[in-house]
Amino acid sequence: MRKIMLWAITASLTFSGVALANNRSNRSQARHHRHVRVIKLFASTVQLKQLDLGDSGFSLGDEIVLADDVFTSKGGTNVGSDAGVCTVVRVDNATTATGTLQCPVTLSLEGGQLFTVGLVRIATAH
């Protein structure tokens, strides 16, 4: 698997959980439940390990274990950390390492923790 794609995966995971508060149905709920808060963060990878499990190469069940420091902005104040394990759940092309990962990630901030899970698509760069 390509390491260059993994940083983008990490960043998108961190933002995916907080972006949920932006969709239309959640906004209407937010007006009803005023305790919803939208936050924007920047993740910087601290540790990352690719595990080639099962068949050799990019295959079902392979995992990426990651941990990030989380900041208010690029070069901003450190406000916490996140960690997760992404698992390959669909292989479109093993040769180009394209497919889909399922990624549960926990974000730990001073006021508590957020848990996100989502599908991340890895496509061939053009």
- End-to-end C-alpha gap: 17 Å
Q: What percentage of residues falls in helices of 4 or more residues?
A: 10-25%
Shape: elongated
- Beta-strand portion reads over 45%
List low-pLDDT spans: 1-8, 13-24
The total tally of domains equals 1
- Which sheet architecture does the biggest sheet show? 5 strands, antiparallel
* Number of separate strands: 5
Helix tally equals: 2
Strand order of the largest sheet: 1-2-3-4-5
**Structural class of the secondary structure composition?**
alpha+beta
Return the average pLDDT rounded to an integer.
81
Order of helices and strands: HHEEEEE
Radius of gyration: 16 Å
List keywords for this structure.
126 residues, alpha+beta, five-stranded antiparallel beta sheet, 2 helices, elongated
What does this structure look like?
By secondary structure, this protein is α+β, with helices and mostly antiparallel strands. The chain has one domain (3-122). The protein is built from two helices and five strands, in the order H-H-E-E-E-E-E. The protein has helices at 3-19, 24-32, and strands spanning 42-51, 63-71, 78-93, 98-109, 112-122. Strands 1-2-3-4-5 form a five-stranded antiparallel beta sheet, with helices on one face. Strand 4 (98-109) and strand 5 form a beta hairpin. The chain is elongated, with a radius of gyration of 16 Å. The chain starts with a helix and ends with a strand. Mean pLDDT is 81; it is low at 1-8 and 13-24.
Q: What's the SSE blueprint?
A:
Elements: H1 3-19, H2 24-32, E1 42-51, E2 63-71, E3 78-93, E4 98-109, E5 112-122
Antiparallel strand pairs: 1-2, 2-3, 3-4, 4-5
